[in-house]
User: Fold this.
Amino acid sequence: MTEAVIHVVDDDEEMRTGVARLLRSHGYEVRTYGSVGDFLLAPPAGAPGCLVLDLQMPGPSGLDLQEALARFPLALPIVFLTGHGDIASGVQAMKRGAVDFLIKPAEPAAILGAVQAAIDRDHAARSHVASLAAVRERHARLTAREREVFELVVAGERNKAIARALGITERTVKFHRTQVMAKMEAATVADLVHASQVLGG
Assistant:
């Protein structure tokens, strides 16, 4: 079983039911919607998962929903499943970050593979956001001087060079460096470099 919730948005009831049945048979929790409007009336409550989205429906299209969701920091990844696909729409959907663009009737294995890829992407995005929040919280603990030492350490500077750059003694540098390592919960300089990359990314 998976904690992910798959949201199937398709105005074709038979297709919607069939996709939901396929996904549920593989342990997914599935919610179905007959239109973009129905989905927007009951938006996901932050649970991980993805969207399996038709392209053309009455009212707003799948591309319209993709564009709207892109404004959110943790938008659910989208797998398009459509009977009205064309090259231009496919290219547009993929450029906007869709995980896959499948044409009906798609093979069950293709749907399952695309959904799993979307869930993996969602988990990775959520993990990154959580990691960034944790690193930012630790970085906020640093004093102004410790942040200067942090930046010079991750730049590869040795204690003597840091002392010269900041106009302090090497002993003071070592003290600040120890504080930086402790507050950033870093065991090695490589850990500090990684934290710096997360902050900068």
Q: What stands out?
A: The chain has two domains: 5-125, 141-200.
